[in-house]
């Protein structure tokens, strides 16, 4: 770090050394490089990271610091001539944040007096020379300019063209398939935030009939073979599964609504899937093509709480919804099923909450202040007056918000005139005892209007899909005595107008056909039904209103 160190105290110099090594894996000037390679850093320099942890810095603090440092470095052209000063000034800038008050003294305590003495005298400590070498190997030349080299198969280079992220090599995939044996799963671990597979590689895994288990930042996602059979958009060349961990400030904001009732065990993870085109553009996949299993790691300090049932998986979608989950002491994980990406975390119950009151239906039209002039205002008011739908509080209906399986099932139960089922009748592990919808979901299940996503899980917080809505509404209409039979030719004829009819799940084809025949549901854009698309609260209310008009009065 040369003569620049003479101008700074040993404390700040020590901090610079400890975090300069974090750029040794890949040039920090590239987007996401520091954070993406945190795990690689831990593996490459375990001694230094362990020293920081021994001096009171948690793994999460390090991850958050690295991510914030990475953001601060964006747009700063690092060269061998400005590297020392730029890194030092940026580290000092980020370290001013009070949330990182532990890091500076820990960095100082992690170096010996001899190390600090050598640094102040302008020398590189013997045990840090390998770090200096690694840094020099990745810092761009003094002249700057375009082109840095990329690693692996991802490539690098300037000149303006888009560069696709690296996929795993065929040799790694072959080894994973061979190791999986006859039972599977095929297990792959990502080095950064995402795992990328060519569509040919994805097809190879799918053809084995085995599940794919992906580990990203400790979050594991088990994708059954059927889910791996995707219909990529035109131009797609890669499949991408991404898991990002929330930074400190985002975590604090997300947890405000459960403060005092729950605490976070681990991190908040954002799961996403999509395909990449040759130009690097991403087409997101909000829904998996079926159920996937997510396994979240339970920190060692929370293992006992997890064993006692206090730690559950939750999903954040404007508010926290408990997903339930099963704790496995052998793997140290909580697993749960889902059909979609989103924010997930393990929350530990600190106090037993009181049962939540069921939202009261709106009693008079015109009381929702956010639907005036809305295209669905008439239907919303009509359904509210009858007590079938309710607001979200403060006189609002939130017509453009999405609707969950629990919310939709509750409306169906009200329309069927059902009464809430007793607690003992609800046997889904992911339906909390204090959930406002528990009784009505239980009643809807008992009446055969809805079913769980498995024998033990209902997935109440999952956004309901259009084909799921169709199936539930058909059951309600049949329960009220309407003839809901349809022939195979009738199904084919009713689905013919939909350009994506082939993508409708086999179990939902007759229901979608019936909803089209009864003119309750139609297509969306471009003549497609979009079976796995989600509905807004307004859309769901309108189709349920249409069902109501068909029911015997």
Overall tally of structural domains: 3
Q: Are there runs of 5+ residues with pLDDT below 50, and where? A: 1-15, 21-37, 127-162, 353-363
The main pleated sheet reads as:
8 strands, antiparallel
Oligomer: single chain
| CATH fold group of the largest domain | Chondroitinase Ac, Chain A, domain 3
- Structural class call reads alpha+beta
Question: How many individual helices?
Answer: 21
Helix content percent band: 25-40%
Let me know the average pLDDT.
77
Write up what this structure looks like:
The chain has helices at residues 10-20, 33-36, 38-44, 46-54, 59-73, 83-95, 103-109, 113-120, 129-138, 170-180, 199-208, 225-228, 248-255, 303-307, 377-385, 405-415, 438-446, 466-479, 488-495, 509-517, 537-550, and strands at 186-189, 194-198, 212-216, 219-223, 236-245, 262-264, 269-277, 282-284, 287-297, 311-316, 320-324, 326-328, 333-340, 342-349. The chain is an alpha+beta fold. The strands form two sheets. Strands 2, 5, 6, 7, 8, 10, 11 and 14 form an eight-stranded antiparallel sheet that branches. Strands 1-3-4-9-13-12 form a six-stranded mixed sheet. It is globular. The model is unreliable at 1-15, 21-37, 127-162 and 353-363 (pLDDT under 50). It contains 21 helices and 14 strands. The longest helix is centred in the first third of the chain and has 15 residues, at 59-73. The chain has three domains: 2-138, no CATH class; 170-349, Chondroitinase Ac, Chain A, domain 3, CATH 2.60.220; 377-550, no CATH class. 35% of the residues lie in helices and 15% in strands.
């Amino acid at each position: 770090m040369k003569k620049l160190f003479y101008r700074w105290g040993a404390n700040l110099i020590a901090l610079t050394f400890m975090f300069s090594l974090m750029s040794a894996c890949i040039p920090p000037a590239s987007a996401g490089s520091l954070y993406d390679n945190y795990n690689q850093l831990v593996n490459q320099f375990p001694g230094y990271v362990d020293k920081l942890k021994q001096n009171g810095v948690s793994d999460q603090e390090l991850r958050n610091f690295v991510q914030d440092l990475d953001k601060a470095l964006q747009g700063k052209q690092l060269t061998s001539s400005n590297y020392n000063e730029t890194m030092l000034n940026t580290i000092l800038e980020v370290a001013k944040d009070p949330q990182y008050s532990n890091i500076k003294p820990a960095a100082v305590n992690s170096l010996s007096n001899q190390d600090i003495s050598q640094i102040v005298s302008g020398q590189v400590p013997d045990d840090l020379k390998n770090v200096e070498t690694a840094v020099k190997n990745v810092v761009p030349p003094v002249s700057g300019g375009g082109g840095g080299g990329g690693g692996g198969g991802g490539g690098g280079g300037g000149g303006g063209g888009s560069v696709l992220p690296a996929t795993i090599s065929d040799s790694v995939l072959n080894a994973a398939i061979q190791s999986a044996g006859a039972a599977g799963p095929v297990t792959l671990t990502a080095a950064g935030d995402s795992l990328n597979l060519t569509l040919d590689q994805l097809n190879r895994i799918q053809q084995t009939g085995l599940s794919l288990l992906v580990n990203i930042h400790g979050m594991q996602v088990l994708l059954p073979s059927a889910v791996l059979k995707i219909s990529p958009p035109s131009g797609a060349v890669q499949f991408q599964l991404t898991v990002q961990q929330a930074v400190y400030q985002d975590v604090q904001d997300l947890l405000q609504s459960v403060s005092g009732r729950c605490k976070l065990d681990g991190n908040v993870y954002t799961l996403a899937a999509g395909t990449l085109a040759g130009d690097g553009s991403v087409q997101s996949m909000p829904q998996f093509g079926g159920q996937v299993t997510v396994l979240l790691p339970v920190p060692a300090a929370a293992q006992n709480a997890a064993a006692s049932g206090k730690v559950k998986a939750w999903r954040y979608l404007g508010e926290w919804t408990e997903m339930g989950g099963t704790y496995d002491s052998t793997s140290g994980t909580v697993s749960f099923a889902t059909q979609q990406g989103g924010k997930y975390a393990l929350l530990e119950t600190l106090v037993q909450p009181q049962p939540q009151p069921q939202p009261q239906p709106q009693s008079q039209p015109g009381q929702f202040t956010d639907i005036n002039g809305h295209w669905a205002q008439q239907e919303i008011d009509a359904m509210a007056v009858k007590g079938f739908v309710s607001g979200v509080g403060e006189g609002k209906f939130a017509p453009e918000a999405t609707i969950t399986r629990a919310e939709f099932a509750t409306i169906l139960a009200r329309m069927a005139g059902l009464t809430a089922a007793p607690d003992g009748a609800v046997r889904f592990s992911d339906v909390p005892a204090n959930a406002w919808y528990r009784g009505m979901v239980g009643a809807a299940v008992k009446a055969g209007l809805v079913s769980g996503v498995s024998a033990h899980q209902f997935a109440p917080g999952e956004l309901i899909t259009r084909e799921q809505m169709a199936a539930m509404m058909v059951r309600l209409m049949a329960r009220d005595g309407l003839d809901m039979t349809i022939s195979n030719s009738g199904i084919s004829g009713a689905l013919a107008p939909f350009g994506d009819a082939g993508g409708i799940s086999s179990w939902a084809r007759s229901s979608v056909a019936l909803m089209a025949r009864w003119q309750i549901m139609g297509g969306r854009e471009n003549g497609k039904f979009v079976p796995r698309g989600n509905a807004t609260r307004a859309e769901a209310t309108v189709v349920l209103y249409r069902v109501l008009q068909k029911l015997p009065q």
